[in-house]
Structures
1.
Amino acid sequence: MTEFNNNIDNNEPKSFISFSEFESFYHMSDSSPLAIVDATFRIIFSNSSFLKIFKFYHNQKFFELNSEPDLRNMLLILTNSSNNNMQFDLFYSPEHNLESSDFNVQAERIFIEEHEYFVLVFKSLREKNKLEDRINNLHNALEYGNVPIIITNESGIITYSTTSFEKILRTGIEIIYNQSVVDSLAFYLTNEDKKELQDAINKVEVWNKIISSTGTDGNTLYEELKLNPIFIEGKDTLNFILTANDITNYILKNLFIRKSERRLKSIINNISDLLFIFKNKDGQFLFENANENFCRIFSINKVTAVKKEIDSILNPKFLNEIKNSIKQFDGNDKSFVEFKFVNSVNSQYSVKISIIKDDLEKEDIYVVGMHDITDQMLYQERLKKAYEKEISLNKMKTAFLENMSHEIRTPFNAIVGYSEIIDDSIKNQEYDAILELISSFKDVLSRVLNLFNNIVEVFQIYSGEVELDLVTLNCNQVLKSVYNKKLLEAEKKNLVFQLALDSEILNVKTDWIKLEKIVDSLVTNAIKYTDTGKIVINSCSEIDKVKITISDTGKGIEDIDIKRLFEPFVQSEDAYVRNYEGAGLGLTIAYQLTKLLNGDFEIQSEKNMGTKIILTFPIVEEFVADDL
């Protein structure tokens, strides 16, 4: 079989300026028989393999060879043709009973020092067949293994393709053979991709690209294309191998992971509770993740915080709570610990820390969940206050009933008695006595009216229904008003009643009526419980405070009874054995109203030595009312 090589250099025979340049180009070796003959078929050069097999030496004419076909005729064909190379199979039967040999002869026309020569290279057909078998086996392996491969020459022209790559290109080898690999891949490449691929071929560089296509089942497939330059050892021949690696599962797995991460991130960020994750890596507590609520509350930039130590990120108070809590995991089987935390703006959180032990990575992962319980705690606090208020009201009702059994019955018994005496006086026409009884009758009714007014007021205070009409005034005005009203009452008991006011204007922001009621009630108590001695109303200023003092030389109060006196319907003596009238509301009302007016209420007393009550209010500069 004769074959002409129709490559692009066929009409341009190689030319060398010397035999040395020729030897350098062909890399002479003894692996295959090689000979150079001139136009008369005289041997100009031969290697040792050639001499050993054919026994022809330098300057011998190489046409007396017993072969089929005749070697001389084959060379004449090449000489007379326009081709510069050819190859053919040659059967050679040497003399001396040597074993016959089959060769594939590659003949090429060349010029050395402008003289025409022919290079003859003899390849054993047996070795050629082995090589072809290896090539066929490799081809079959690639085909049966569905390995997508394209081989190109140094210019990127396709010389080989497996069937599986043809399926990717949706065409056959008959279409893409001897075509540019850039053009064959054009369907999958942008203009920029094609430029990069061509540049890689020109610069003999590696190139890769991920492409997607639709499979026969309608699903998307992903292939990673990779172009590698390949140099044949010992030669300057260059080829490119383009492989396609199916990475669909890898891409889909990564897409699923990213989708799961996005979904998890969305779930974490939509959790209303605060969520924070950190890990213990070789003794270091490193920030791992947190939802947006946690980052907002603790003013953390999650992007810059990741992998940093939590010591440099978290609030020191919160950090200390966390570190103290996670110590509880040491040496026990706890899966979580809990504690409560109050931040700088008094928001309260119930904190739960769970631990996940990663034996593979040799690290502990901590998940911190924080539930805002501020509203719950406020509700519980309000519930507690409401409960305490209910208990207080129940106690008040009990005390009310106990006191009212006496306080209401006594004046109404007096009214009934006065009514009977008035009836008798009318019958007996004792009109002077009637006038005296009517005065006493009015006092009793006044006492009853005052009792009911006090009951209404104390219940308003405890139910939070008291309304204040705040003004800025000189408190001395109120003290003078009360003094003038109570002077006659004190004189009836032969008590010394003194008014000792500071000469300065003592301005306070208060409710005139409520302040006057406080002072009036305290002076009334002082007169009631003082049999001899004196009562003094005093005012003075101390730095930023106004101090009002009502002191007496009366019976005094035991220390144990002082706190009880602030409760409604309580007196220093038991309701059934007391010697003084009253429902025990005056001191309670005075104390509660002082607190509502932003004042302090203090009692200093000693049994049988007297009592001093001190009211303290913040002083103000503004003054509205006229000084009396």
2.
Amino acid sequence: MLFPKLRILTCAACAGFALVAQPLLAQRANRPDWTARYQAIVAEKGQKADSMRLHELFAVDWDYGNIEYPESATYSGYKGQNDRWTDVSLAAINQRKKELQNPMAVIASIDRATLSTSDQLNYDLFRRGAEDNIAGTRFPGEYLSINARSGPQLLPQTLELNPNSTVKDYEDIVARIDALGAVVDQTIVLLQKGLDAKVTAPRITLRDVPDQVKGLLTADPMQSPVLVTFTRFPASIPAADQKRLTAAAVKAYSEKVKPAYERLYTFLTTKYLPGARESVGMSALPDGAAWYAYNVRIQTTTNRTPAQIHETGLAEVKRIHGQMDSVMKSIGYKGTFAEFTNFLRTDPKFFFTDSADLVRAYRDIVKRIDPELIKMFGHLPRLPYGVTTIPSYAAKSATTAYYQPGSYEAGRPGFYYVNTYALNTRPKWEMEALSSHEAVPGHHLQIAIAQELTDVPNFRRYGGYTAFVEGWALYSESLGPSIGLYKDPYSKFGQLTYEMWRAIRLVIDTGIHAQGMSRQDAIDYFAANSAKTQNDIVVEVDRYITTPGQALAYKTGELKIKELRAYAEQQLGPKFDIREFHDQVLGQGALPLDVLDARIRAWVSERKAKA
């Protein structure tokens, strides 16, 4: 999975996210007149070609997204915003919701028929995103601004994305730290509004959040994760500046940040958690059924109903069970499925006892994959990646691993984060499948290729559709036999366990949010059909509860890519080239599944015509 963070599709793609960011209040006074900038493009109709005005729209909207949401600027390498946080005061949120109409006014003034084929696709994708954002304003997502996977308590991870090689870089980090008091206080306002509106995360999923906050509070400021960047200055920073910057950061932490996090801790423990809802399904929220249907459509980029997706999940669980039974027979195991999965969860031979050994093993896996990639891909990205560990203060409630995208413009590699908390829940047999998903040929390969595209607008280079991004990563797990993985039958069973995991998601996510499935029923169903450890199962079920619909994207996207590959193989026969197919899938960045379908079918027709 991708570490939860903002990825812009259009200027307002952020509107439905509970951002881990808050304002420097003074920035509202100096805010650009965005409406005037968009209206200026509308006024050029008849004076400039529509294709030129379309790209002016993309440029203005890119500026809007990065200036209004500075964390995205840091992520993408857009310059000049690394000292700021997003203003998510209620006034700012409401203003941005109104401003969603600005790009639509420009789109309405452009005649699509006059555009080139490539710009028609750009137009369609931009318009689709803008319309989806407007539709999303019906739902108060800003009230859900904290959970175990996002919120101001995780801001140290955002700070680590800041460039940190010059004095100015560190001055930017100090400025962000200095603003964390506003981050926390406005988060409290949003959470209180959520309590008043009865729109909160389920109480059970918030149980670790107070401890996450407490983990940032230390007697010695330099021991706090907030200031970790100031414990490892590069040699390029003069000693005098290191001393000055550290002192400024410590002052900001002591006088603003620590008191603010203490206020948040008190609010969470005395008001928010006691007042949070006991229900787990999204249907329990006001307008919850429509909200969930919206999430399902956005996350899967399909019009399939929760009921249809649920049935697909049940069918996939049954199919994958058959393959798992075959692997058990090949090993010679005579017991039941439940006994075998218990063996995999508990036998000490499947677990490391030292976290350093676990991390080294992950690094060994991905470096064994790297030279095999050329067999499967005609184009590989330049951007490197590394393997590191999930910070300890966040690890307990974090998933087994995640990928944090890099940025060539920012000089930041991608990182594959692995969880070293509770080593007896991190089995060796899952590591190859997990690595192929999070690093290569999964997230790192796909996202780095998209970022390096030169012929698409920035909103497509850095944007994403969960069904494509996560569908590709799940599909990548199935490529293991072609890149030297799963030679050990337990690792093969691990790959099937991971595929089963994503099929189970279809059943559980729709079951909880549309069919009244309880949390315990979801945990029991997961445990009965998977070898995942109990800790992982609980964390995963709570994730589905916290982010309704997101988990549906994986299997939906994977099944579409496999369907298109089977179609291309059948149609092209001996002319089918796996490297060419993969390059076609990845060559235009992330796409909605219906657009990907049309693209691959057009490519197959073109290849057949040439043959």
